[in-house]
Amino acid sequence: MEINECGNTPGNIVNGGHAAIQGDWIYYAGNDGDKLYKIRTDGCGKQKLNDDKSWFINVVGDWVYYSNYSEDEKLYKIRADGSERQKLCDDGCWYVNVAGDWVYYEDDYGHDRVYRIRTDGSGRQKLNDDETHDICVVGDWVYYINESDGKKNYKIHPDGTQRQLVD
User: Fold this and answer.
1) Cβ pair 62, 87 in contact under 8 A
2) Residue 34 confidence (pLDDT) above 80
């Protein structure tokens, strides 16, 4: 099976991340209150994975990561078979991007900053001090809109260093 290095595409994440694909499976928020499902790319084998309102879906390896809108946008992960559902942090997580061993997100509880946390829920770090929207991870950079600087585009390294205006 093909294993994703990044859990979703930037274009999909900034539009709510309602679906992600890995190998022969599509993971998506259903039309029954955004509960998480998976289905084979040929349309067979539909399975319900949770009862959570699931947004910003990312799939990497055996795990599906998502923002749980049923629980104030908290960050969760669940096995691709629907087992081992775990809360990773108490932040309100928007624009969730999984890349490697890290989950990047915007903390939506009035902070609007870029954070990262390990995929096991440890090592939470704030990466910037800008009022942030629409983050996406591409290659070696985290891109975002800096509301503090007139809605200009910025990028930083995944460790929060080398903050730069994108012309």
Assistant:
1) no
2) yes
